[in-house]
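Students often ask why we bother encoding 3D structure as a string. The short answer is that it lets us treat folding as translation between two languages. Here is a chain of 157 residues written in the first language.
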Amino acid sequence: MTETKPIKRSENLVVLSHEHHHALVFCARLKKAHQTDAKTIQLFVDNFWTNDLLPHFINEEKWFLPEMENNEIKEQFIAEHQQIKTLVNCIKNATKGLIDLALELSQVLNNHIRFEERIMFPYLEKTIATNNLVEIGNTLSNIEVNCNKFTPEFWKK
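And here it is in the second language, the structure alphabet:
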């Protein structure tokens, strides 16, 4: 078995990596959507979207889009944010197929986080001017990262 080491992240982006950790917890919980009813899943997704994911997306788009050249990384970043927003809206309005949508959101969000951590953040750390990265870090340091509580805790069944 090969040992994987944590990715060394610039201290200016670490708050976003902490938010990514909480989003991965959300993804793991969402995989257990079959353990509860449709309304609970819709509330769970809406709660996480409103309190955690939307503010995270707003910060990333505000600070990173102006710093990115038009390239494949930027295109993937924009496309995946849009895909996730669309899935969240589909879940909020779903009358059928909710479990499949929840599982799809879990997978898409998980893959997006991996993309950002493994490809986009290293790219940004290399391409953003140090003073700009420090300014971004100082602004983001005001974000309080906490794992939003949601009840019922259907994932514990």
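Translate back mentally: The chain has a mean pLDDT of 92. Keep this in mind for the problem set.
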